[in-house]
Amino acid sequence: MGVSAIEAAQIVPSSRQMAWQQLEFYAFIHFTVNTFTDREWGDGAESPDLFNPTELSASQWVEVCKSAGMKGLILTCKHHDGFCLWPSRWTDHSVASSPWREGKGDLVKEVSDACREAGLKFGIYLSPWDRHELSYGDSDKYNAYFINQLTELVTGYGDLFCVWFDGACGEGPNGKRQVYDWDAYYHVIRSHQPGAVISVCGPDVRWCGNEAGHTRKVEWSVVPASLKDNEKIQAHSQQVDDSSFAKRIGSDEEDLGSRRTLSATDRVVWYPAEVNTSIRPGWFYHEHEDQQVKSVPHLVDLYERTVGGNSTFLLNLPPDRRGLIHENDAETMRSLGKTLKQMYGRNLALGAKATASACKSDEHEGSRATDGDPGTYWRTEENVEEATLEIELGTIQTFDRIVLQEAIIQGQRIEKFHMERLHQGQWQVFYEGEIVGYKKICRFDPIETDRIRICVTQSRWYPTLQAVQVYCTGAKELHI
């Protein structure tokens, strides 16, 4: 029993996990009959006649996402009520039975086409729990039904970057518990969409553990393999429409990848985290929440803690009954995008001279961390686990953010570091941190200097840095 630090350091992401991580920030779109019943969860008895958005525009959704700097969109193609946003041949509980587009519409196609035209990646959410389908609870029969619907989605709408499953579950109409055939679902996805990550109830992307936007101080991507089964265990899954679930924080699972955790497990995997939350209190649109849209400073803080905390940020934007993202949400997203561009538009360390205390070769010298090339990185020799990287900015600069990125194609290695500035001829520590991973946004009060020293004091086998970026964001609110 026990995994060594060197063994853990050699666990690396798959190509699909790497492509997903690089998206960083993307949208969730929750839209179905719930939008028209003013509920968060439907019971499956809703009439398709309810679904009739009057001004639906998938291109407006995509424009709002792009304005905020998002790189992808995941659509809830079927929520727990079982209503399908595409004309599935396996049920009449779909848009084909609704008055929208005179029953000839296909919202999945409209959204996937809009994403493709605008250059956004497209993904799908498909609820395994179906409160409308009578075969639910008859495990073999329902699994066949679900696989048929899943096959329609993964074969009919172009390339997908993600298939998102949650673990919400309940009893079938006869009180029978449905047993999901996860392996069969995964086989369908891998066969038709080999580039798509399978998220949450899947082997590629891990749920952060809450829907409140909470992030861990230390978020490891190399974690015990047993975590892959957590959300598939029905006892841990959401089974009722309880708003308190969205506020739950699993504080007892803060440490998922430390050396202590490694010593208590026999196998680890690359299983990175995604943080999901909604721009409003609810996941579906409710008119009474129009004045409860998260503020731009709140969203900036979430962005810096998620994307800048070795996770990705999945933000829900619920369209209203017109089929449009509400003006309040849209304006907030545009302001968010403008703010992030202003904060992170000028890297003061781009092309700066960088000198390392140790490096493996000229190919991996210190300047590789400041050359702006995502394909190069600094690293030391094997077994050199402590090292420093000194950055010369050329002139005295004022800044309040430093962004670090490991070369995660080599694994996640840095466990502890601090940063120093040269001030009046003396090196002074101004920041202490633990993990880096794909991206770490280090936030601090503004300082002035022309020299920075990054000191890696603990790592696994050898440290790497793909990027060191320095910014003066002018942020009025500081969140550590």
Short description:
With 480 residues, this protein is an alpha/beta fold. The protein has helices at 5-9, 15-23, 34-37, 58-67, 107-118, 139-156, 182-192, 259-263, 296-306, 327-343, and strands spanning 25-29, 72-78, 121-126, 162-165, 197-200, 206-207, 222-224, 268-270, 273-278, 311-316, 353-356, 378-379, 387-405, 414-423, 426-433, 440-459, 464-465, 467-471. The longest helix is centred in the first third of the chain and has 18 residues, at 139-156.
What descriptors fit this protein?
alpha/beta; eight-stranded parallel beta sheet; six-stranded antiparallel beta sheet; 24% strand
Description of the molecule:
Helix 5 links the parallel strand 2 and strand 3. 47% of the residues are buried. The chain contains ten helices and 18 strands. The strands form four sheets. Strands 5-4-3-2-1-10-9-6 form an eight-stranded parallel sheet, sandwiched between helices. Strands 11, 13, 14, 15, 16 and 18 form a six-stranded antiparallel sheet that branches. Strands 7-8 form a two-stranded antiparallel sheet. The protein has 480 residues and is of the alpha/beta class. 21% of the residues lie in helices and 24% in strands.
